[in-house]
Structure formats: structure tokens, C-alpha cells
């Protein structure tokens, strides 16, 4: 029954993906054939339409995969529609440029806009319908959480808030309970989440879960992520793993610097009108400074002054105490709320990138006071300082402003150990989507703001197990 339920869910997801892909492609092909193909191609119109269709499908499917535009079960309807809009919008734009280049002139945008309007209607109907069907027909999985960290309640709260239609939490039990009791609870559930469990306990439970073919998830330890930076080697008949310092490779460093300059200079040029309007708005609101500077740490513990548009009142920390922004913070100005909502306050950091203080993609550089507090409680946090800080990064895309220090570290390590130029390009494209998701700018709660110097440490973390980071 368990496998049948999983098969049904996968079949439903596959069917939904095929439906929207065919619908979006059919709308494109209709408008392309009726208008652009007939006006652009003088000969070989059938071949031209076929090639254009293949190009469109390639771009759309790649972008849909990147933005996870068909994850109807995991994401809210609004986010699914946004992801689809970015996917087919990118494909439509590339094909329009192709048509203009072939015709050697600007072509009317109206047919393309009509196609986009039809695609938006189709996507909206599909997303709402598919989500409604999924919730009605696919029941949430009975889920057991085995935990080894005291903050499991907060984890459960987040899980229920966003994924109650996927997971029905039946019980949470401590990983220190007798093994027999844990195995009995596992047998009673379809899905198991091992949340911050100690290493030895986790290994035994994973073995049992695999043998029972249970669906299960684990929260990775620091060493689990760092090992992704190793490469396979063989010493005669003995397999070895050798750590690769890919991030320190000179060729990679040069390529990354070229990408940084290309993206930052292009961004400065395109966004210059936004910069001028923002500067004027800040000055007119209260007559204070336009820019805000703050010391941050970057690669090898070097400090630099990060540049931002001022979004808070002047002297927001005049008492000298570092206070992170909280939800509904009254220090934020009216202009500040707008520019923070759309990340406009971050635009001046493009000049930090040009100067070489930052990269476009990398771990977000933290303020000096926070880094010292984090490292005191979580020494592994210093690992982020092995690479240059970034304007955007893995933690900014997959986390939120108020994500805990430990979770930020794990997210950033996933980037550090897998970084490449292609991954940087992926992160840049994903950032476009994040700009339109307000949840990612959510501030700290008042309680979390007071606990900034107390980052979470998992019970199964390196400290206390004798395990080294590398």
C-alpha cells in the first residue's frame, strides 16, 4: 500500500508536468506559426518552425527544472505560477530575439504578449486545479520525527505551516529512547525524519530504514556536506577520498572574477535609473545620508565596508549595540520598507563587487559582531570565511533573512563544496525568482534578535562526538 501510494503520487506529478508543458508549448507554437514564422522565414518555414519548437522546448524545460516550476505539491500556488512565468517568459524572450535577428528588424511584440497572456491564464488554471486535486486525492504521509535537538518544536511548526498537505506528523520522539521503541514507531509510519540525530544513532536507524524501504529524510551534519568536496581516488585496491581545493584553483578564481565584473557592470548600467530615483527618495524623506556603510568579514577574515542604501532612520544603533532587523521594526523608514521589499537597498553592493571586496555569488558577508558571536558558539562557522562573501548565495536563495546561523552555515557549505561557474550562473538566475518572494526577507522575531549570539548547535554536531571538520 505504501509503494502504491508513492507510485500514484509520482504518476500524478508526471501527468501534471506533461499537461502544462504541452499547453505552454501549444500556445507558443500557435502564435509562432500564425504570425512570426509566416513573416520571418521566407523559405523552409516548416523546418524553421520545427527547429524553433525544439529550441523553445529546450529552454522552457531547462528553466522549469531550474525554477522547479512543476513542483505543485511542495510549493504554494503563487510561487508555482511565478516559476512557470519565469520559465516560459525566458523561452518566449529568446525566441522573439531569434525572430528579430532572422528578420534583421524589430518585430511587433503584440503577438508575443498575447501568447504570454494566454500562457499565464493556462498556468493559473493548471496550478490551482492541480494543487486542489493533489490535496484532495493524495493524503499527507504519516510522519515520525526522531530528534536530537531541543529546537524540534520550531522545526515542526515550520513543517506544519508550509507542508501540512505532505506530512502528517504523528509523533516526535527523542533519539535517546531505547532502539526497540524507535523501531516500533518507525514501523507505524510511512515517512521518517531524522532531525539532528547523533551520528552513531543515525547510522543504525538509516540501516533499518533502508532495509524496510521507508521514505526518510535527514538533516546533514557539517561533515556530510564537507565530504562533497572530496574526489574519488584509489590506492591499489583501497578506495580513498581526497579533498579538492576547487575554490582555490587559479583558473576558477579568474573565471569567477570575470563573471563578477561582467554581471556587476551590466547591473550598474541597467539599474542606474533605479539608483538615481532611490537616492532622491531617501534624501527627500528625511534629509539624511543616502548610503549606509557597515564593516563585514569576507575571505580570510578580511574586513571591508559593505555599501547599502540606507533603509533605517539615522543612528539606528546609536547606543552602539548591534540589533538585527525584526519583523515590523519601527526603525525602518517608509522608503526603506519599499527598497528592502524589492532588495533595492542591496544594489550599491555592485560597487563592492567591482572593487573586489565581494563576489556576485558567495556566502553572505556577516557583520563583524555577529561573526565573533557565531564562531564562539559554533566554531565551524569560520569555514564560510574560506571564500569571498557574495551579493547573493545559497543561503539567500534557499533560506530566509532570519534563518539560524547553523542552517546558514550548512546552506553556504553546500555552495562552497560544489561551487563552479555553472553553479554561479544557476544562483544568479534563481535570485531573480527570490526577489519576488516576500517570505525570504522576513525579519527576526524579537526573541531571536536577542539571541543572535546564541546560534543553534545540533546534538549530533562535531563537538561532543570527537569528529573533526576535515
Write a compact overview of the structure shown.
The chain crosses the membrane at residues 12-35, 47-69, 81-107, 113-134, 258-282. The protein has 470 residues and is an alpha/beta fold.
Total strands: the figure is 10
Largest sheet: 4 strands, parallel
Helix vs. strand class: alpha/beta
On the 0 to 100 scale, the average pLDDT is 87
H/E element sequence:
HHHHEHEHEHEHEEHEEHHEHEHHHH
| Separation, N- and C-terminal Cα atoms | 43 Å
Assess the beta-strand content as a share of residues.
5-15%
Percent of residues in helical segments? 40-55%
Q: Uncertain runs with pLDDT below 50, 5 residues or more?
A: 443-454, 457-470
Question: Can you list the strand order of the major beta sheet?
Answer: 2-1-3-4
The gyration radius over C-alpha positions equals: 25 Å
Counted by DSSP, the helix tally is: 16
Mass-distribution shape: globular
